[in-house]
Specification:
Length: 390
């Protein structure tokens, strides 16, 4: 039996992962499940799957989790330290599906005990790519991509060598506002931004898809994971979300990965890798689809993509700053304190402030520095938002 842990088990990726694992319960021994405030779901799944431990991210929910698990023999734990302790529990395969930079430290801990880390949490590579890859190397651990585009690239690279790769193209559906006139974007509401045309995902990544911040993170994730030059990464708007990514080779060939927009494909590929096993995903009927369309992204519409290029150019702690500022700007948008287009403005001004402050961006890329920088970036977004409001 393979020992598996799922971080962010109560979320969209977490639940899809549990769906696959529950279909073959005899193959897996569940070690740790983690969640946030959804205690009843976390406890129910922990009992159903016979986990050793269930962890909520929130200290003040420990008593609730304890009572929900009473009599089950499953250990309950809460808080940051407990999340990291869950990462330290020996496991063969760990799903990293916490949303946001909060997923970084538990993931690094799982790498330190040599686990294969299935990485849905793209923030891990955006905030600390070189550090994470080095940790995996030092501890003999493996990172497998779960983001659909990166899983697609990974699959299109099987049997190939990175030296023959000329470019990587990741696709973007264009999100909720793809067909909106530019002038209407300023007034886009949280509700409007929270519905995705093709994918069913958590609220935060759905809004990030509408603003293209999700694609911006993914471009950086592509650079970090595959070690390719920023100039060799392209984004292509593809409204149908059928082609997830393409790898362009030096002989001009493009290898495209196609599939239904169902995250269980990428999760299952990482779960069974290096094998391919049956997965309960819809089979494409291309004749019925009839056609696929592609267009270049409009950078005026999506400032996040331009910011991602600047972040890749600068390197170091800039990824952590970019991500933290984006997360905090998103908090403010969800709380209706700023408007849709203000998010990119806030991120941009915080990046500029870091650039103008000596010694911050160029500090070495350590977990401590990432966390301190993350904290400061969030504080500066708050200041920016307050200033504008006042
Ligand atoms: P979600 O919001 O549905 O779930 C997030 C999970 O993280 C939940 O279990 C929640 O309880 C937990 N969580 C939230 N805040 C936390 C904190 N501060 N500390 C610890 N745990 C916390 O999110 P999701 O859509 O499943 O996305 C998870 C990750 O996977 C994100 O990084 C996202 O970008 C990435 N991803 C998601 C999809 C998708 O289809 N949903 C696709 C590609 C990549
Ligand atoms: Mg993706």
């Amino acid at each position: 039996m393979r020992k598996v842990s799922i971080f962010g088990a109560t979320g969209s990726i977490g639940q899809n992962t549990l769906d696959l694992i529950s279909r073959n319960p005899n193959a897996y021994d569940v070690v740790a499940l983690t969640g946030g405030g959804n205690i009843s779901k976390l406890a129910q799944d922990a009992v159903r799957l016979g986990a050793d431990v269930a962890v909520t991210a929130f200290d003040d929910r420990l008593d609730d989790l304890r009572s929900a698990l009473a009599g089950s023999g499953i250990k309950a734990a809460a808080g940051q330290a407990a999340l990291i302790e869950a990462g330290a529990r020996p496991a063969d395969w760990v799903m990293s599906a916490i949303v946001g930079a909060a997923g970084l430290a538990p993931g690094i801990e799982a790498l330190r005990q040599g686990a294969t880390l299935a990485l849905a949490n793209k923030e891990t590579l955006v905030c600390a790519g070189p550090l994470v890859l080095e940790t995996a190397r030092n501890y003999g651990a493996r990172l497998l991509p779960v983001d659909s585009e990166h899983s697609a690239v990974f699959q299109a690279l099987v049997g190939e060598d990175m030296t023959s790769v000329e470019r990587i193209i990741i696709t973007a559906s264009g999100g909720a506002f793809r067909d909106w006139p530019l002038r209407d974007l300023a007034n886009a509401t949280v509700e409007q931004a929270s519905s995705h045309p093709n994918w069913n995902m958590g609220q935060r990544i759905t809004i990030d898809s509408a603003s293209m911040f999700n694609k911006a993170l993914e471009v950086i994730e592509t650079k970090e994971y595959f070690g390719i030059q920023p100039s060799e990464i392209e984004v292509l708007v593809h409204p149908e979300s059928i082609v997830h990514a393409m790898v362009g080779y030096r002989d001009g060939a493009l290898m495209a990965h196609m599939g239904a927009p169902d995250m269980r494909h990428a999760i299952g590929y990482a779960l069974h890798w290096p094998e391919r096993l049956d997965l309960p995903v819809a089979r494409l009927d291309l004749a019925q689809l009839g056609q696929l369309s592609f267009s270049a992204p409009d950078e005026a519409r999506y400032p996040a993509l331009r910011l991602a290029r600047e972040v890749m150019q600068r390197g170091g702690l800039t990824g952590a700053i970019f991500n933290a500022a984006k997360e905090r700007a998103l908090d403010h948008f969800i709380a209706r304190r700023i408007r849709f287009l203000d998010m990119a403005d806030a991120v941009s001004s915080v990046l500029e402030r870091f650039e103008a402050t000596d010694g911050l961006i160029d500090a070495p890329l350590t977990l401590d520095n990432v966390q301190q920088t993350d904290h400061l970036a969030r504080q500066w977004v708050d200041e920016t938002v307050l200033e504008r409001a006042g």
